[in-house]
Amino acid sequence: MTRGEEPETGLAVAEIQGLYGAFSFPEKLLQKIWLRGNFDRARLATTTGTPVQVAQPGKWNLLGGPDFLGARLRFGTERETEGDVELHLHARDWEAHGHAADPAYARVVLHVVLFPPEAGHRTIGAGGHEIPVAALLPLLRHDLEEFAAEEAVEILADRTAERIPEELGQLPERELRGLLARHTAERWAQKVRFAGLRQARLGWTEACHQTALEILGYRFNRAPMVRVAARWPLPRWQDGAARAAELAELAYASEAGAWSLQGVRPANRPRLRLRQYARWAETIPDWPARWAELGDTLKERDPAELAETATIRAQRKAWAIGRWRERIGAEVMGGAIGGTRADTLICDGLLPLAAARAGTNSEIATAARHRWEAWPPGDLPPLLARGLRELALCDGKAWPATHGAAQGLLGWLIDKTGVRRPETGKG
Questions:
Q1: 31 forms bridges with which residues in the sheet?
Q2: Which is nearest to 87 in space by CA: 151, 11, 6?
Q3: Nearest to 346 by CA among 328, 321, 364, 323
């Protein structure tokens, strides 16, 4: 791993070796993680072991000076402290950037870094006083590559899709499909890997619970939804209709000020999604166990290898996508979640969880991947829907849009944002 400076912004950026090659992790992304609280805040502590409670992360400062101004923190049993917070990828960046001699940083009360510093490291502020250091890497809810991919999605949401027909439209159809198929396979492997890491950390039931709530908050309210899942495990939602409904309201109130409503359609508002989850837990209290049992039958009655030229309609019929869609909706979700969000839950959550549970080389994982590739795309961003149409990869008839095609195109676009470097040979 190496690090450097982005020439245009001066912000630090880490070059990290990931599952499919090197990728970039900018300091600005670390700032977003701190702002959104997308880490295990209950375990936040300084490098000397003092617990840190974050009452307010501070105001994000995009100008000169500390990254966050006016944060409210509590160190151990001390009274709440108000001051600034500075973030770096590495603890040594404090000295490298000359902050100790800069009066603008005199009010910094916490130095947050991504990578844990070397033993004995001390961050010294103005006047020679020591500033506590806290490392976020051990507390992140995803690994760095997943955070980098999510950052790319946000970047893409603010850009036009002109590069799709300009670059990919020049390729012969066979070459185009092969290129996107490689990216599709990478995206699937990443999702299964993340699902496996979550299961290893939380166990099957809570991994399912956290994944479901996170996807219901997708994509603007993922962090507060994960915090809700961690604070109220699934057994707390299984005490009956009234209790679950009350818990949904309590959970919503607990993250007051953290929810993002701007750009969120009414159907995706977090309060509504929490109420839906309460109905889900009320109807099928043991839904993770139900999914484990149903997921174990994924390998049954699988068709012989389909011809390479088989249409999507033919693939969906062979893999019984319609029947599986109905069974999961009724037997696992209890009808509480429907439409495109149910498809997103199945593709981004349930199928990768089932594959990770069975093992990546198992028959179940193979069957899950085939269904994942042919499944309807769920909450398909307009950028990807337009791209698939312009490339004539879907026609709404024999070749409808699929989750696999959308993920393949997304993987290619992620490469083009610079999150994954061109020299890795991907895309």
A1: none
A2: 11
A3: 328
The span from the CA of 79 to the CA of 426, in Å, is 51
CA distance 192 to 365: 9
| C-alpha distance from residue 426 to each of 6, 145, 183, 259 (Å) | 22, 15, 8, 36
Q: What is the pLDDT of residues 339-396, one digit of tens each?
A: 999 999 999 999 999 999 999 899 999 999 999 999 999 988 877 888 888 788 887 7
**Biggest alpha carbon–alpha carbon distance for the chain:** 73
Q: Which residue has the tokens 């999510």?
A: 150
pTM for the whole thing?
Answer: 0.75
What strands lie across the sheet with 12-18, from one edge to the other?
A: 2-5, 12-18, 21-26
Ranges of residues in the chain whose predicted pLDDT is under 70: 1-24, 145, 152-163, 165, 300-309, 417-427
Report the Cα–Cα distance between both ends of the chain, in Å, rounded.
Answer: 22
* Angstrom distance (rounded) from CA 398 to CA 403: 15
Tokens of 96: 């490298």
Task: Tell me which amino acid residue 208 is.
Answer: C
DSSP states of 296-337: TTTTTTPPPPPPTT--HHHHHHHTTHHHHHHHIIIIISTTSS
Q: Transcribe 46-88 into DSSP letters.
A: -TTS-BEEEEE--EE--SSS-SEEEEEEEETTSPPEEEEEEEE
| pLDDT for res 210 | 94
Question: Are residues 71 and 57 in contact, defined by beta-carbon separation less than 8 angstroms?
Answer: yes
Give the per-residue pLDDT at 384. Answer: 83
Give the pLDDT score at 301: 57
